[in-house]
Predict the 3D structure of the following.
Amino acid sequence: MKEDLYKTIVVKVGTTTLVNENGKLNIVGIEKLVRVISAIKNSGKNVVLVTSGAVGAGAGRLGIKGKGDIRIKQALAAVGQGVLMQFYEKLFLEYGVNVAQVLLTREDLETDIRRQNALNTLTTLFEFEVVPIVNENDTVAVEEIVYGDNDTLAAVVAKLIGADLLVILSDVDGLYTMPPHEPGAEKIPYVKEITPEIEALAEGSYSNLGTGGMQSKIKAAKIATEAGIAMAIISGESPTDIYNILDGSTACGTFFEPKKAGECAKEA
Ligand SMILES: Nc1ncnc2c1ncn2[C@@H]1O[C@H](COP(=O)(O)OP(=O)(O)O)[C@@H](O)[C@H]1O
Ligand SMILES: N[C@@H](CCC(=O)OP(=O)(O)O)C(=O)O
């Protein structure tokens, strides 16, 4: 891994990578991810893991099917968040990496004093060489003040901590010209600029588990690249691709070029 290309990295993992369709945890997938993040951490970089999956894991634990209304989702998240953290704790500890749970709401990141407190906590965790594991605080985030998708949350956190790379792991290995289950869909390997044409390609989620689909990932890419942060969408099945990205490759999944300082975003 190149030492100086990317120093602070945010890795976001979606429910579709963490939880099987039957609601059980994807043990092999989570183990692979934890191993990669631990290796990156041990190479001396700062890493934040933004994890989804609380609602999905909670539904699996209680044997509840379907997404349900907001009240049900909040209760499921309260159950599933503990399930996820217990598993992350166990796996990261095997590699000698300490982790911390950080639950945030949009209000926390949009209120000056609370945003500063969140930043202080995250930078202090870096000083202690801890990997912060972030999720939205679903139990208290109600409709009007919710991000609702962790892609946006991950981009906002990346901007807050001055990250230089955001990697989004999904059940799809990048942005396609149309939802990948449609015949003729082709992967777009490199996005220099997020134009309205690029935005128009992205649709919502087609799975029972995911939230936001490709639309929220492109929204995240806009926030990140406009803040000068590179972003990649890669398959959750191959987290080792992150090593290649850290070595400077832009050939994995879809790579979004960051804007350079002084470059202005074009009006839509
Ligand atoms: N243009 C597109 N390219 C790729 N995926 C797309 C596109 N439009 C919609 N999608 C959908 O976005 C999904 C990924 O988002 P989502 O279901 O929210 O999963 P995650 O749990 O990774 O956040 C894909 O499985 C795909 O069906
Ligand atoms: N905060 C929610 C995740 C919301 C979300 O964005 O999900 P996903 O589309 O799977 O990344 C949870 O933990 O279930």
The CA atoms of residues 226 and 263 lie 8 Å apart. The longest strand covers residues 8-13. The radius of gyration is 17 Å. The chain has a mean pLDDT of 93.
